Amino acid sequence: MTQAVSAFEALPQHPVEADAKTLKTIPPYVRLAAADAYLYLKHPNKAARLYESVIKEDPGTDVEHFMSLYFAYIDGEHYDKAEPLIEQLHKVTPAWSRKVAGEPNWERVDVDLLWAMDPAYRNDESLSEQRLRKLFNAAPRNTDTLNSLATIERWRGWPEQSMQTTRMAEAYEPKSKDTRVNVANNNRDLEHFPLWGQQINDLYSDFPTDTTIQKSLAQWNDRSRPSITSEYTTGKSNGGSNNGNPVNGNRDQELQTRLNSPWTDNGWRAFLDQHYIWSSYEEGPLSFNRLGAGIEWRGDRKHFWAMVDNDQLTGNHVGLSAGWSQWINDHWQYSISGSTYSLDTPLRAKEAGYSGKSISGDITWRQSESREAYLGLGLLSISDGNKRVDFSTGITQRLFASPHHITSGGIDLFAEHNSQPGGAYFNPSSSESASVRLEHEWITWRHYERSFTQYFKVSTGYGWQADYGGNPTVDLFYEHKWKFSRTWDLHYGVGWGSDVYDGRREHRLYGLIGFGGVF
User: Which segments in the chain show pLDDT lower than 50?
Assistant: First the structure.
């Protein structure tokens, strides 16, 4: 492909800078070959220019050239051009061949499938599924339709359902490339990792130039490399319930970094975890500074982890933490976790000589990419005898979606009860809150696997505390997310919140920065 582009750009017409009139002097088949090469090498705008020039000269050219132009628009983020193109193509492409009476026009099948997939590229997976199910009902044995439907089902977060659909395609055409790719990718999402690795390597051997297979193989190879995640948060608070001494401290910091080993063939890896929590009060700074080592296993949509940690500088207060989670099906997941030395223990309780043990459980329901809900219950047992029980629940609903924008809304409820209120730390007998949440994500720039996204969240509601009544609450957050490559990312943001403790309002301004990647 690189040689094809080099040969094209070396033509005497200087095609990169050539105007439309000069481009016409280059034969269409040469321009089309160069356009295909540009698209493969991730230069979609250059490809689109050449496809457009050929189609303008010959509007009756092959349908495949229009479809190639469509993909050039999609890859170049020109969704405003891609959608009307495929709509027009779907409108004018005949169902029957013009050349042979009674012969189906097989180009129409390709156009129908691309028309059905188009909404998913614009974050409307539901409409794509509706269109594909209509095509499936009309031709239930068409493997291209089955594989497209299976792809959409996987994109919607239903790998089990997607695998069932793929098995139907496999019954008709087991050696089809699309069927084999769907089987492999479903095994990836179902976390059947050994099967996925074997299948994607076999596919790469058979189709080494397929970019979808190349990407999946790269994801497989990532498992044999170490990875890292880290995030630092700092905040400043004012006001407060204790003579201007905020519950969270005048200043606070938190740093958590995790380094993971490569995955083994049977789904295990080791990790190191460093977690630092610090707050400054009038009586002085207080902190947790923990260093831990652990192992985790992941497979078959199940996840187990365990970690031993202690105070980083002294080696004291050894703790054991562990957790387990499992997807029961495509829609329901549960998780449980516990710690013998919990960092949920208030810093002021720690300073008073107390420690805490915790256990928690969560249930997640996910209908699709557009709607999900959660429910959580936790118990923190502090060594002063206090039992702190937390309950939380909420739901998120997508409100708007377009190629570069997604807006979601949600409701969150929270309640806490302490068996022994009062003491050395903020510890009311009960507190509750209810809030509504609005989130917006804007993909401001994207070029294949690199992107820049802006994220904004506003949450406002009402909080209640025993003996102090209720007061309004608010939290605002704005964030930038950078994807530098398929494996490395950076995010940073700033937020402001206002809450009331013991009848006095506190304001907190905070910022965070974090990154993650695979070495």
Answer: none
Q: Which residues, listed in sequence order, are joined to residue 509 by a DSSP beta bridge?
A: 236, 496
CA 329, distance to chain mean position in Å, is: 19
For 72-90, how does the pLDDT look when each residue is reduced to its tens digit (9 = 90+)?
A: 999 999 999 999 999 999 9
Q: Which residue has the tokens 């949450």?
A: 459
DSSP code for 312:
T
Determine the distance from the C-alpha atom of residue 287 to the mean position of all C-alpha atoms in its chain, rounded to a whole number: 32
Query: What percent of the chain clears pLDDT 90, i.e. is strictly above it?
Result: 87
Give the list of residues 6+ apart from residue 349 with CB closer than 8 angstroms, or none. 355, 356, 382, 384, 423, 424, 425
Picking from 182, 210, 245, the residue at the C-terminal end of a domain is: 182
Number of domain units in the chain: 2
| Whether residues 304 and 447 fall in one domain | yes
Cβ neighbours of residue 39 closer than 8 Å, sequence gap 6 or more: 47, 68, 71, 72, 75
Give pLDDT, residue 1.
86
CA distance 461 to 408: 17
Amino acid at 57: E
Q: Residue 107 domain-assigned?
A: yes
Radius of gyration of the chain (CA): 28
Domain that holds residue 460: 299-518
Output the pTM of the full model. 0.93
Residue 177 lies in a domain: yes
pLDDT tens readout for residues 79-138: 999 999 999 999 988 887 777 776 778 889 999 999 999 999 999 999 999 999 999 999
Beta carbons of 476 and 495 less than 8 angstroms apart: yes
Relative orientation angle of helices 159-172 and 143-155, to the nearest 10 degrees: 170
| Residue 101 covered by a domain | yes
